[in-house]
Write a structure and sequence with these properties.
The complex is a heterodimer of chains A (242) and B (264). By secondary structure, chain A is mainly α. Chain A has 10 helices and no strands. Classes of the chains: A mainly alpha (242), B alpha/beta (264).
C-alpha cells in the first residue's frame, strides 16, 4: 500500500515539475504533459516510429549480449585468477569513470557510421560494470563455502554448479541491471551523434527541425520503457538477493 | 595395538607448518587418541593452531608430518563418516532451510524417500520445524548454526568435528546450544571433537578436555571430567564444574599471556 502511494507521489511530483518547466520555458522547448501523452499515443500507432524503435532495439540487443557474455566471462577469469584481478580491478574502475563520450569521434573513425559504432558505444558503457560486479562476486565467495564443499564430498563439477554458480548469481544480476541501463544509454548517445535511424536520432532530429512535440514524446516513451525495464530487473535482483 | 582398541581416530606426531618466505610452524607435534563415543574438547589461546588441528583431522588439509587415522584407515581427504561444522556461517543463502539440510544427501544421490525421512528427523531434532521454508537471511545466527548442524547430522557422521560453532553467539544461547549438542551426542552415539575458546563450554560439555599451548600448539594438559552421560547445562552450578574450569584456566593462563605478547 505504501509502495503504491510512493510511486503515485513520484509520478505526481514529476508531472508537477514537468508542468513547471513547461510554464517557464514555453512550447518552443517542451510540450506539456497532456499534449505529450496524446502525441506519444499517436506516435506508437505509426509504422515509421516502430522502424526507428526496431533499429534502436536491435543495436541495443547486440550491445547487451556482448556486454553480458564478454563481461561475465572476463569477470569470472579475472576473479578466479587473483593476480590478474588485482591488477585489472583498479584499471577498470578508472576506465569506468572517464567520460566515454569523448571517445565517440574516434569510435566513428574506427567503426564507421552505422550499427557497429552504436553497438560498440553501447558495449564500452555497459561491459565494465558487468566485469566489475562479476569480479567482486567471485573474489568475495566466502572461503567457508569452499571448505563446506570439501566436507560434503562435492566433486569439482558439483561445486561449480551447485555452490559457486548460485553464490555469485545475485551479484552478477546486479551487474547486469547496471550494465543494461548503461548499454542503453551508450546506444542512444551513439544514435544522437551519427545515425540516420533509431530513437536517439529521432530526438536529435526533432530538436534540429524544431519539432518539439515529437522530441518530447519520444523522450517520454524512452524514459517510460527504461523505467519499466529497470523495475522488472530490480524485482529480479531483489528476488535473487533473498 | 591393544591400547588403541577403543580409539576412533588417532593422531601420531602430527605437525603442520604453513610454507612461505617465513614458514609458520602452527601445530604439533600432536599425539592423541580420540576414544569411540567420547566428547572431547580442545581449548587453547587464540592463534594456537586449534582450527589447524581440526582441519588436518577432518582431511581438509594435509599434515606436514605425522600420521592420522580414522576407524583404522589413514586419512586422505575428508573420510566418509566425518562431519564438520564451521565457526563461520556456512548456510547457503539461496536455499531454504529444508533444502540446505538436504543439500549433501541430494548431491550423494541418496534415495528421495530416505532423504525426506532423514531431513524431517534432523529438522525436528534441531527445532527448525517452523522455519523449514524460511531462508537463512530470515534467521538469527543461532538458528543458522542449527541449520549447519542439521546439514551435517543428516549425513549420519560417526565423528563430528565442530570448530568454535557457537563463537559468534551470546552466552545464554551458547549454553542452550551446548545442551542441544549434548542431546545430539547422546542420540547419535557419535564421537565429538569440539574446538572452543570458552573454558566453561569445554568444562560443561566434555568427557575430556585437551589444553593447547601457544603456537606451535601442543597439548600441555588433559583433563578428565567424569560427568554422567545424561548431563546438561545445569552442571555449571556444581562445585566440581568450578574445579574443572579452575584447572583449565590454571593450565592456560600463562599460554594465553604469551599469545597476547606478555611474558608469563
Amino acid at each position: 500500500m505504501t509502495r503504491l502511494f510512493d510511486s503515485l507521489a513520484i509520478v505526481a511530483g514529476i508531472l508537477l515539475l514537468w508542468t513547471g518547466v513547461f510554464e517557464y520555458a514555453g512550447d518552443s522547448a517542451i510540450t506539456g504533459p497532456l499534449q505529450t501523452f496524446r502525441f506519444a499515443a499517436n506516435l506508437l500507432g505509426r509504422a515509421d516510429f516502430w522502424q526507428h524503435a526496431q533499429a534502436t532495439l536491435s543495436a541495443f540487443g547486440y550491445a547487451l549480449a556482448i556486454s553480458a557474455v564478454a563481461g561475465i566471462a572476463l569477470g569470472l577469469i579475472l576473479g578466479l585468477h587473483r593476480f590478474s584481478g588485482d591488477v585489472a580491478e583498479p584499471m577498470l574502475a578508472s576506465l569506468y569513470t572517464i567520460p566515454k563520450v569523448t571517445l565517440y569521434p574516434l569510435m566513428l573513425l574506427v567503426f564507421g557510421l552505422g550499427v557497429s559504432a552504436k553497438v560498440a558505444f553501447g558495449v564500452i558503457h555497459g561491459m565494465i560494470p558487468v566485469i566489475l560486479f562479476t569480479l567482486s562476486a567471485v573474489k568475495n565467495i566466502p572461503q567457508v563455502l569452499l571448505r563446506t564443499a570439501k566436507a560434503l564430498h562435492l566433486t569439482p563439477m558439483q561445486t561449480a554448479t551447485h555452490l559457486l554458480a548460485p553464490a555469485v548469481l545475485p551479484e552478477i544480476i546486479s551487474g547486469l541491471r547496471i550494465g543494461f541501463a548503461l548499454t542503453f544509454l551508450g546506444v542512444l548517445i551513439g544514435e544522437m551523434f551519427a545515425s540516420q535511424r533509431g530513437l536517439g536520432f529521432l530526438i536529435i532530429n526533432g530538436i534540429n527541425s524544431h519539432d518539439v512535440k515529437r522530441t518530447t514524446a519520444v523522450i517520454l516513451i524512452v524514459i517510460t520503457a527504461s523505467v519499466a525495464a529497470n523495475g522488472a530487473l530490480l524485482a529480479l535482483d531483489r528476488r535473487a538477493h533473498h | 595395538m591393544t591400547a588403541e582398541a577403543g580409539a576412533h581416530a588417532t593422531l601420531r606426531a602430527v605437525t603442520r607448518t604453513y610454507p612461505g618466505a617465513r614458514p609458520v610452524h602452527a601445530l604439533g607435534p600432536i599425539d592423541l587418541d580420540l576414544m569411540r563415543g567420547e566428547f572431547f574438547s580442545v581449548v587453547g589461546p587464540s592463534g594456537c593452531g586449534k582450527s589447524t588441528l581440526l582441519d588436518v583431522l577432518a582431511g581438509l588439509s594435509e599434515p606436514t608430518s605425522g600420521e592420522i587415522t580414522f576407524e583404522g584407515k589413514p586419512v586422505r581427504g575428508v573420510p566418509d563418516g566425518i562431519g564438520v561444522v564451521f565457526q563461520e556461517d556456512a548456510s547457503f543463502p539461496w536455499l531454504s532451510v529444508r533444502d540446505n539440510v538436504a543439500f549433501g544427501l541430494r548431491r550423494m544421490g541418496t534415495d528421495p524417500a530416505e532423504i525426506t525421512r532423514r531431513v524431517d528427523y534432523a529438522i525436528g531434532f534441531m527445532g527448525l520445524k517452523d522455519f523449514a521454508h524460511s531462508y537463512p537471511a530470515q534467521l538469527s545466527g543461532g538458528m543458522r548454526q542449527r541449520v549447519c548442524i542439521a546439514r551435517t547430522l543428516v549425513l549420519q557422521p560417526r565423528l563430528i568435528l565442530l570448530d568454535e560453532p557457537f563463537g559468534a553467539l551470546d552466552q545464554q544461547t551458547r549454553l542452550l546450544m551446548g545442551d542441544e549438542l549434548l542431546r545430539l551426542w547422546r542420540e547419535t552415539s557419535a564421537t565429538v571433537l569440539l574446538i572452543t575458546h570458552a573454558l566453561d563450554e569445554a568444562a560443561m560439555l566434555s568427557d575430556r578436555v585437551g589444553v593447547m599451548s601457544a603456537r606451535p600448539g601442543v597439548f600441555i594438559d588433559l583433563v578428565q571430567t567424569n560427568w554422567p552421560r545424561d548431563r546438561d547445562s545445569r552442571i555449571v552450578a556444581e562445585a566440581e564444574f568450578g574445579a574443572v574450569t579452575g584447572r583449565l584456566w590454571g593450565s592456560l593462563r600463562a599460554e594465553s599471556m604469551k599469545a597476547i605478547g606478555r611474558a608469563g
